[in-house]
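I'll show an entry:

:::
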Amino acid sequence: MILFIPSSYAEKEKSLVLTATPIKDHILENGWAEFDITLWNNQHSYDEVTLSIDEEGTQWSMVTRPSVDYLSAIKLAPMSHKVTRVLLKDIDLRRDASHPYSVDVYIKSRITNANAVTRLHIWLLPFDPSKIDWPTNL
């Protein structure tokens, strides 16, 4: 017998779940991409998690709001969630609006070693499209 479990149900069964909502994912030079990251603790116990990004071959500057104390971790009450705003800025990456960069955001429990990941897509625009003088007589 094969049992199929819908992914939304399976996600809720994980002890830690991480989701991302893009706020600003198309950025100009010197701009910051913004995402609301929701950290879910589906355990019946308190947890502490660390938040990180890991992208080989690319460099990103990351800021969180509210600021996260990376030494003491993010504290999550049992059966609760917390939202933090993550801002990312590229460090001298090639700008190409035809495809996004993918950035993986990770959380890892300091107590249980459980982990979760979500992927962010960020488009680095080479110019401001609103400043283009588009032809009007086509």
